[in-house]
Amino acid sequence: MNEQSKASVAADRAFTGQHVLVTGASRGIGWSIAQAFAARGATLSLAGRDAALLEQRRAALNTSGASNHTAFSADLADAEAATAMVRHAVAAHGPVDILVNNAGYGASQPFAKMTAEHWNQMLGINLSGVFHVTRAAIDGMLPRKSGRIINIASTAGLTGYAYVAAYVAAKHGVVGLTRALAREYATAGITVNAVCPGYVDTDMTATTIETIVRKTGRSAEAARAELAKSNPQGRLIQPEEVADAVLWLAGAGAASVTGQCIAIAGGEVMP
Ligand code: NAP
């Protein structure tokens, strides 16, 4: 085996034995992140609400006899359900080494028509969910002085967008939480970072396209092109590109990177 092959095998097994908890792991960005860690030897806890889909994903990852990934269904906006989910994950695989807070959902409402229900829903999953899961998982990181927390925020955590005030407020909250925890745990061996994608080619963006079509009468192709135009590279981001950034932040080489919010958006925002 030449040196290059040896290096790539080492990289492929970089997370062997590590317990990685990915929320929103059943679809889109979270599923891509889960697959990337599993391919590199990690043991996955997959969390989301749709138990049947999570079970399919778990089965797809557990193809090798050596793998032992587990799925947990919970509404993470609910404090008790989120805390119980982390407890079950820790019981199955030990303390969480790497936490990826990815579960989230964006919906639009003009501010003058915004209901408290919409506001609470956006804050509930996109911000409080991150708090509930992190609060429960960090207890296992502190005594070992080791942990990686990676929050999937959004460019909506770095700048404003019209008609999605609650989502933008929630994602700015995730960025604030990321920065505060990075400082609080700087000497505790725990890094806390955020990844901030622009429009990614997932179900969530498909729903945004449907909404634009419904509200404006434009074609799906025109709506998709308009979203792609918000990225100076003129395209939607692929979920694998977000997963690559997460892998890097979780790896040994990123030990001194903390409190950072990395935009994966083709230059749309430059924080
Ligand atoms: P997606 O394809 O719609 O997947 C969302 C995931 O989150 C699913 O696994 C979903 O599973 C889970 N989820 C949603 N609400 C939940 C809840 N209350 N409790 C537990 N799990 C929940 O979305 P995505 O595009 O991959 O987005 C993933 C993350 O990236 C989100 O935080 C989103 O805000 C962020 N993001 C997305 C984009 C984009 O353009 N797509 C851009 C920037 C940031 P269940 O439905 O089964 O619960």
Order of helices and strands: HEHEHEHEHEHEHHHE
Dominant shape: globular
Binned, the helix content reads 40-55%
Termini Cα gap: 43 Å
Write down the overall mean pLDDT. 95
Assigned CATH superfamily of the largest domain: NAD(P)-binding Rossmann-like Domain
CATH architecture of the largest domain: 3-Layer(aba) Sandwich
CATH topology of the largest domain: Rossmann fold
Explain what the structure shows.
This protein folds into two domains: 16-198 and 240-263, NAD(P)-binding Rossmann-like Domain (Rossmann fold), CATH 3.40.50.720; 201-236. The protein contains nine helices and seven strands, in the order H-E-H-E-H-E-H-E-H-E-H-E-H-H-H-E. It has helices at 3-12, 28-39, 51-61, 79-93, 116-141, 165-184, 203-216, 220-229, 239-250, and strands at 19-23, 43-48, 70-73, 98-101, 147-152, 190-197, 261-264. It has a seven-stranded parallel beta sheet with strand order 3-2-1-4-5-6-7, with helices on both faces. Strand 1 (19-23), helix 2 and strand 2 form a beta-alpha-beta unit. Helix 4 packs parallel to helix 5 (116-141) and helix 5 (116-141) runs parallel beside helix 6 (165-184). The site of NADP nicotinamide-adenine-dinucleotide phosphate has 28 residues, from helix 2 and helix 7. NADP nicotinamide-adenine-dinucleotide phosphate binds next to helix 2 and helix 7.
